[in-house]
Amino acid sequence: MHPLFTFENSYDVSLFKINGTIKFSNHIQPVCVARNVSNIVHKGKYGFVTGWGTTSYTNITFPLKLKQAKVPFLEQSECIKEYEGETIIDDTLLCAGKKGIDHCFGDSGGPLVTKHSNGRWFQAGIVSFAIGCGNIKGEMKLSCNMCHNINYLNSGFVGVYSRPSAACDFIKNTIGSDICQ
């Protein structure tokens, strides 16, 4: 677990060691981590979040197949505004998603990847949290500071992801090599 991790959302990054080997194939490949994500994570670009989580806030059933969603990245200023009054979005976090398309219960810790113009895949984020599920605020059964405003409820929260790029030094110190590019 990252030594600066807080339950208030910062540095939500952990590593684990796998015993044995991983057999790479056309469908199983390592993903790159970028130190500077500004050229791969910006408004107008999309990422792909995958996971085994539920597909609804109210119907808690888990899929039999891995799910994937294409989600747009938000500018950091939009991300901060989205969660204003709810939580602090710092530079260890990023937002992606749109109404009805995002991560849900059981997806936490999963990858948000994007393809660079050079053809390589990079992990842009790690599923951390959202208010609601799949960005449907009106579907929520929990309290939030802005939820009294029905227009706010129906507009949809976006998902929040930890930035692996913010943890490059932690990764290097933990595994003994620098995988960040």
**Which blocks of ≥5 consecutive residues have pLDDT under 50?**
135-155
Q: Which CATH C-level class is it?
A: Mainly Beta
Mean pLDDT: 79
- Please estimate the helix content: 10-25%
From the spread of the alpha carbons, the general shape counts as globular
Sequence of strands across the biggest β-sheet: 2-1-4-5-6-3
CATH topology: Thrombin, subunit H
The figure for the number of domains is 1
Describe the secondary structure blueprint for this structure.
Elements: E1 46-51, E2 67-72, H1 76-82, E3 93-96, E4 111-115, E5 121-129, H2 150-155, E6 159-162, H3 168-175
Antiparallel strand pairs: 1-2, 1-4, 3-6, 4-5, 5-6
Describe the fold and architecture.
This protein is of the alpha+beta class and 181 residues long. The protein has one domain: Beta Barrel (Thrombin, subunit H), CATH 2.40.10.10. The protein contains 3 helices and 6 strands, in the order E-E-H-E-E-E-H-E-H. It has a 6-stranded antiparallel beta sheet. The chain is globular and about 40 Å long.
Task: List the keywords.
alpha+beta; 6-stranded antiparallel sheet; globular; 181 residues; 3 helices; Thrombin, subunit H
Concise structural overview:
The chain is of the alpha+beta class.
